[in-house]
Description:
Elements lengths: L8 H7 L4 H13 L6 H8 L7 E5 L6 H4 L1 H4 L4 E6 L2 H10 L6 E5 L12 E7 L8 H11 E12 L4 H11 L18 H8 L2 E13 L2 H9 L12 H15 L2 E13 L9 H8 L1
Parallel strand pairs: 1-2, 1-4, 2-3, 4-5
Antiparallel strand pairs: 5-7, 6-7
Helix pairs in contact: 2-10, 10-11
Bound molecules: S-adenosylmethionine (SAM).
Amino acid sequence: MMDNLMQNKEALHKQYKDSSALEIRRLFHKKYSTNKTDYDSWIIENIPFCKGQHVLDIGCGNGRLWDKGKKWLEDLEELVLADNSEGMVTEISSRFQSYASIKGVIADICSLPFPTQKFDIVIANSMLYHVEKLENALSEVFRVLKPDGTFIATTFSKYGLNSYINDSMMKMGLLPPSQKSSVDFTLEDGGKYLRDVFGDVELRRYDDFLEVSKAEDLADYIFSMTSMRSIPLSAREEIIRYFENKKNDEGIIRIPKIYGMFLCRKMYKISRKYGPKFASEIF
Ligand SMILES: C[S@@+](CC[C@H](N)C(=O)[O-])C[C@H]1O[C@@H](n2cnc3c(N)ncnc32)[C@H](O)[C@@H]1O
């Protein structure tokens, strides 16, 4: 079977032992995005928060989303920031230590250490494409959500930045063509997994363009990605030259950035997977 580079345990462990790779990518997006509303602010604006809620952000990384969600930090009853990387949780715990309502927890999405029906909102921001057993992850999220609770799953499109980078690396002969189909949980394909579990699933898209003026920054971004780990560092100069040439031909390196979120409501009645099984709990 083909190695799915986005789900390789050893590579993920290395990549997310701390937040350095995430920070390279965050700064790149901050520097080159053209959409006036940044992606994290857009995510926060689209989540139906209310005062007093219990919220879980699973696979939260270093918790950077909450820089844009600060106004909710006082109003939520409880915010659990969880990740299966110990390094990330250590960072979170010191970063948010002044907030009594925030807890950092080491947890795997496939086996959540929380009681059934605990949370009003569960967020999985840019992480489900790393999960090998998606079915287990979704069933755990469904379990810990309150009835009528909301699950927010964000991801990228098959046709945005990641595919631009994949295609460029393939054109350069630095990646094999088989790598193209290795990601399952995209904006185009994620809905079918979610619809089986949650009754009601809505897709919202976030469209943007990156206008990159420095090829070195794009090379740093590429080397920060789990899915590019097979590319040797010795190819860095070649990659920079490739994008420099593109910039000289086209004036700027313009890359589509297509992200978005699935808003899923936990509705037993219309859940294909859990409707009949859990019906007795609500009727
Ligand atoms: C691409 S980062 C996203 C981090 C953060 N949500 C953000 O958007 O900045 C993916 C995160 O998911 C975490 N992760 C990967 N697999 C996980 C799993 N099975 N359970 C919990 N966290 C996981 C990684 O440690 C990493 O912090």
